[in-house]
């Protein structure tokens, strides 16, 4: 049984995270090259006497960008918590392990295959890109498992080195494929690879939503298995857990939501690394709590990072992936030093 203070702490953390996201949404809707007051936003959202300009700015530009950023953050935060739990490695991250790179490579190949017709494929392309990303993410994970296993077990010490090597290899293939594109698609691919939600639209939101609705609840319902994975593998097996099957289910769900997020936003690194660490510091080691808080923390990181990139550097814009990396790289170095 969980104590009442633990439950209260969890809800307090979730409420604080939700309040931070709400504040970021407010700032994102009201600030930009076309400033609006909170009353303008409310009149448009409800709607109460909206104007055409306000309606266009909010529903075609700002709101889909914020919603997509939140979805991407949830996906990366939840996936990071699962990957760290499965590998028992606090340095594991979808980007560091090469999953982002594998999904990104597959999606760039998709762009190359349909180059010059991105505007014509419409909904079909928006829905197909996550599937291409899933194939690439599974391929990257298979390679990580192949080369990081030692005497039949996943070696957490090899995991990071293998992931970095695979990420570099897939990155090289991605760059080669992007250079084969026509100039317009190449420019789009470069912006996308930096981790940007600048071109967010409701098609991308709709393409990602089914993956979150289906896979995140599966992860949360099986999150208690991650608690058992922190024990010795022999102990986990003796408790009746089908270790390999559960690992495969959790990793496939994680790869699915990672691939969907990479398909719509490019490679946004370090969210899956930082969010689970924040969650563990705030709510402890119970993985159902960690998964929930990691999703909220990831959403807050991406939404706030996009807001910073859009407003602080105005009139220029900085991709959210670059903003998050400015925070993530020093934090990763700190974790490396602490792990030594």
Q: What is the CATH superfamily label?
A: ABC transporter involved in vitamin B12 uptake, BtuC
**Percent in helix:** over 70%
Output the number of helix runs. 14
Return residue spans where pLDDT drops below 50 for at least 5 consecutive residues.
none
Number of separate strands: 2
Overall number of structural domains? 1
The strand order across the widest sheet is: 1-2
Assembly type of the chains comes to single chain
Radius of gyration, rounded? 20 Å
CATH structural class: Mainly Alpha
Order of helices and strands: HHHHHEEHHHHHHHHH
Shape: globular
CATH topology: ABC transporter involved in vitamin B12 uptake, BtuC
The CATH level-2 architecture is identified as Orthogonal Bundle
Q: What share of the residues does DSSP label as strand, in percent?
A: under 5%
End-to-end Cα distance, whole Å, is 35 Å
Question: Strand pairing plus helix content: what structural class?
Answer: mainly alpha
| Largest β sheet strand count, sense and barrel closure | 2 strands, antiparallel
Mean pLDDT: 84
Written overview of the protein:
This protein is mostly helical. It has one domain (about 5-340): Orthogonal Bundle (ABC transporter involved in vitamin B12 uptake, BtuC). The chain has helices spanning about 5-30, 40-45, 50-85, 100-115, 120-150, 155-180, 185-195, 200-220, 225-230, 235-240, 245-265, 270-285, 285-310, 320-340; strands spanning about 150, 155. The two termini are about 35 Å apart.
